[in-house]
Design a protein that fits this description.
The complex is a heterodimer. Chain A has helices at 38-50, 73-78, 150-160, 163-169, 176-179, 185-195, 198-226, 230-315, 323-342, 355-364, 379-423, 425-464, 471-519, 529-571, 605-627, 644-657, 670-678, and strands spanning 2-9, 19-22, 26-31, 52-54, 60-62, 84-97, 100-114, 126-128, 132-138, 144-147, 170-172, 366-367, 372-373, 580-583, 590-593, 633-636, 660-665, 682-692, 705-711. By secondary structure, chain A is α+β, with helices and mostly antiparallel strands. Chain A is elongated and about 190 Å long. In chain B, strands 1-2 form a two-stranded antiparallel sheet. Classes of the chains: A alpha+beta, B mainly alpha.
């Protein structure tokens, strides 16, 4: 099946009727940046077929309840009272049946009449009819058929596009999370049910069950009519009914327990994964603590040596290099006495005669030294006076010299003292420098080791997605939880085994009762053909049940393998993306795992989006292979979360997966456009833009602009 | 007159502009584990004086000048340094014996060499950058560069 053409008239941002898109088999791209009409074009596909449009971040709504909001604003504004506006979408597509190609045309139209000249955007200013849909096609016999009632068209569309598959072949990118939600496994279960071939087995099993019930009823009715053992018949009939009811109840209980077992299995896996991380953690933590301790010690040591150096510097090292001068000072101090006494001439000692005698001589006015008169102002008198003055000076100098002598004596000890201390200075400096250099090197080494330990811990924490700050506490709790879960698993297995045994027993009792019931039939009961039919249907039921179970497992494996093939092809350019898609066959839980089966819990939105798209594409392509029907794949912006390269790879993969895909996206950059145009797998490219007759530098109102499409390829 | 008693009560002077250099490298409050090289103010003065003495840099003080500690403080907190300064000043005195009679002359020698030492430090910073002496290893380097 493929879409040939879509034409829009006054639909949403598309003005008038000159909006036509031609498509081919293969990959068709419709490109446009924000607000160019991409989502509205997607709405057009959905609306023409099903009468609904998608309201952003909400859901699909039938337009019969939306008034005129989906009709183009510009045409509404241009209208006047009494004008009738047509809003329509026409879709042409081809569907092949038994080597015959049938072209279908479907048109949906809404007419809106402007009541008065009140504001054009006012809902009450319009009379809007419900949408009308018409479909036409040519039958293989050559008859031209027209379906002009909603019911007929809906019936035909159900045949062409089964309800269950619609959401998966045609979806808005933002609706992807509802289709496949990794945190809600029921979404995957539903997807399998709706779009894979597996439901046919379930359908077959149901049909057989229904047939079997009807056959049994007819068979039993005939036996009852013919039997000669009415009481026995009644008893067995009741027994059979009771057994069936009991089997039904036990199967329900069994189902509940099996579901619980699956849940317990998942929790066990989760708990074990967390515990394993915690097992790896303690040795790493021990190493980290050891390095931190060593680092602290070496830092303290560096600080101590630094302080010691400063202390020494302040108290002694400052004097380094002054040794020569200090030796000189020693010489000067030692030489003092020599210099002091060297030039001394012999003279009468200054204290001879004592002052007492000198004063007596002055009083007597007679010099006893030279034995002559010493009258005032005479030479002898002045000489005696000068001797008195000298003596006073002398005694004064003695005191001073005594002080100086003691000072000199003290100072004479200084040079040796200082020189002694300066002796070992170089060795001291060298030794402390060596010690500090060694400590600094050690600090560098320990810091590096610590960084590596922390990095290893971070990697572990990131891999398992758990915080290890309360690791010990968690470990205890998880160990206890693991023990509880293991016990519960054992219990459930035992319960399930017993229930299965009970069901088997009930079923064999049921079988026996049914056989006994048949035995109550008279001798000519071989004319009751329903007896044989019942046996045949039972056989068929057993076969289908067995095949169904295997088919489910096989299907999930196929989906996983095909999805991973797509995933690998799309991401092979990006070395940072690792892991593969894993689908749990019992629980349907989807995750990304590494080769060693560790679940990768850190991911990003882009990666999750890509996984979902690969899974859907895998299911649709498998469905195509089995059913032989290929639906056109239409989607609006599934690539918003992907980078450029991945977007291009994804688009190319669609070309090989679906016979026709129509992708509406903003995510092909101008830089990659020429590459896309040249790509052989891309058959058609349209570019959407905004047209306005207003000035471009003014902010546009919705009615002032409309979308236009330009065919690039 | 008691020479020593007088000597230790005299406060060596410094040009006011050099206070900035002293404060740059001394913890004012005597914190040994602070980030500056010297824990007391007098130590950077003594360091300047020694640099002046080793490098033959002597200059009379220009006013304005100030003083902050007496030689007694240096003696009580750094006896070896104090004795060293005394020896060095005696070695450099033009008439060593005058300075041994008058303590003011000895202090004057220390002052003038400290003054020259501050000039030397300022030139070093100008040549090698204002932050050259911000770390202790730079002081050690200067020390190791001194020849005997």
């Amino acid at each position: 099946m493929y879409i040939k053409n879509i034409q829009l008239e006054n639909f949403q941002c598309y003005y008038k009727d000159d909006n036509s898109f031609e498509f081919q088999n293969g990959l068709n791209l419709i490109l446009g940046s924000i607000n160019k009409g991409k989502s509205k074009l997607f709405d057009a596909f959905y609306w023409v077929l099903f009468g609904e449009i998608y309201i952003t971040r909400d859901n699909w709504y039938n337009t019969n309840r939306l008034g005129v909001i989906f009709i183009n604003d510009r045409i509404k504004k241009e209208s006047t009272s009494g004008d009738v506006i047509n809003c329509s979408v026409t879709l042409k597509f081809n569907h092949g049946i038994e080597d015959e190609d049938i072209d279908y045309t479907i048109k949906r139209i809404v007419r809106a009449e402007r009541k008065d000249d009140s504001e054009w955007h006012n809902y009450s200013g319009w009379i809007t009819a419900n949408s009308v849909v018409e479909m036409s096609y040519k039958t293989p016999e050559g008859n031209h058929e027209i379906l002009d009632s909603e019911g007929e068209v809906e019936h035909k569309l159900r045949q062409l596009f089964p309800f269950e598959i619609r959401d998966y072949i045609w979806f808005q990118g933002e609706a992807l999370d509802k289709l496949i939600d990794f945190s809600n496994k029921a979404t995957f279960e539903q997807a399998i049910k709706y779009i894979s071939y597996y439901p046919r087995y379930e359908m077959l099993a149901e049909i057989i069950d229904l047939a079997r019930d009807k056959i049994d009823k007819v068979k039993n009715k005939k036996i009852k009519a013919k039997t000669g053992q009415k009481k026995e018949y009644e008893r067995l009939d009741k027994l059979i009914t009771d057994k069936k009811e009991e089997i039904r109840l036990r199967k329900k209980e069994l189902g509940d327990k099996e579901s619980e077992l699956v849940q317990v299995g998942e929790k066990l896996l989760e708990t074990k994964t967390k515990l394993e991380a915690l097992h790896d953690f303690p040795p790493l933590e021990k190493v980290r603590l050891e390095h931190e301790k060593n680092l602290s010690e070496v830092k303290n040591k560096i600080e101590q040596i630094d302080n010691l150096q400063k202390q020494k510097f302040q108290q002694l090292w400052l004097l380094k290099g002054t040794e020569k001068l200090i030796v000189n000072s020693k010489k000067i101090l030692i030489d003092y006495d020599k210099v002091r006494t060297k030039n001394q001439k012999y003279t009468l000692p200054d204290d001879v005669p004592p002052k007492l005698y000198l004063e007596a001589m002055l009083d007597a006015k007679w010099c006893l030294i030279c034995d002559r008169p010493a009258d005032e102002d005479s030479d002898p008198y002045n000489y005696i006076q000068s001797r008195i003055t000298s003596q006073e000076e002398y005694y004064k100098n003695i005191e001073e010299n005594k002080n100086l002598q003691s000072t000199i004596q003290l100072f004479q000890t200084y040079p040796d003292e200082v020189l002694y201390k300066l002796k070992g200075i170089n060795i001291q400096i060298e030794k402390t420098q060596d010690e500090i250099d060694e400590a600094i090197n050690l600090r560098t080494e320990i810091s590096q080791n610590l960084r590596e330990a922390v990095s290893a811990i971070d990697k572990l924490m990131s891999k398992h997605g758990i915080s290890l700050s309360t690791g010990t506490k968690q470990s205890r709790e998880l160990t206890s939880k693991l023990s509880f879960l293991l016990d519960r698993k054992e219990q459930l297995i035992e319960i399930i085994t017993k229930k299965k045994q009970t069901i088997n027993l009930l079923e064999s009792e049921l079988k026996e009762a049914q056989e006994n019931l048949i035995d109550t039939a008279p001798a000519d009961s071989d004319k009751i053909k329903e007896i044989q039919w019942a046996q045949i249907t039972q056989l068929l039921k057993d076969i289908v049940s067995h095949v169904k179970e295997n088919a489910k497992l096989e299907l999930i494996e196929c989906i996983e393998k095909t999805a991973n093939k797509h995933y690998f092809n799309i991401t092979k350019h990006n070395k940072a993306v690792d892991g593969k898609i894993f689908i749990n066959k019992e629980s349907y839980k989807i995750s990304r795992i590494e080769d060693d089966l560790y679940q990768i819990t850190s991911g990003n939105v882009g990666n999750d989006t890509l996984m979902k798209m690969c899974i859907i594409n895998a299911m649709l392509s498998l469905n195509q292979e089995v059913t032989g029907i290929s639906y056109p794949f239409i989607t609006d912006a599934p690539t918003s979360d992907l980078d450029d390269e991945t977007t291009i790879a994804y688009l190319k993969s669609l070309a090989t997966t679906f016979s026709q895909s129509i992708i509406i996206t903003k995510d092909v950059s101008k830089f990659r456009l020429s590459e896309i145009v040249k790509e052989k797998k891309v058959k058609v490219i349209y570019e959407l833009n905004t047209y306005t007759d207003q000035k471009v530098d003014e902010r546009l109102k919705q009615y002032e602009a409309y979308s236009v499409a330009k065919k690039i390829k | 007159m008691n020479y020593l008693a007088d000597l230790y009560t005299i406060k060596p002077r410094y040009e006011k502009k050099n206070r900035k250099i002293m404060e740059s490298y001394s913890e004012i409050r005597g914190n040994l584990e602070g980030r500056k090289v010297f824990s007391q103010l007098w130590q950077s003065y003594a360091w300047a004086a020694i640099l002046g003495l080793i490098n033959e840099r002597r200059r009379k003080l220009d006013s304005p000048y100030d003083s902050a500690f007496d030689l007694g403080v240096i003696h009580n907190n750094g006896e070896t340094i104090c004795k060293g300064l005394i020896c060095l000043s005696i070695a450099k005195a033009e008439d060593s014996y005058d300075c041994l009679k008058d303590p003011k002359l000895l202090i004057e020698i220390i002052e003038e060499y400290a003054n020259g030492g501050f000039d030397y430090i300022a030139e070093m910073l100008s040549e090698k950058g204002d932050t050259y002496l911000d770390s202790f290893p730079a002081f050690l380097n200067e020390l190791l560069d001194r020849s005997l």
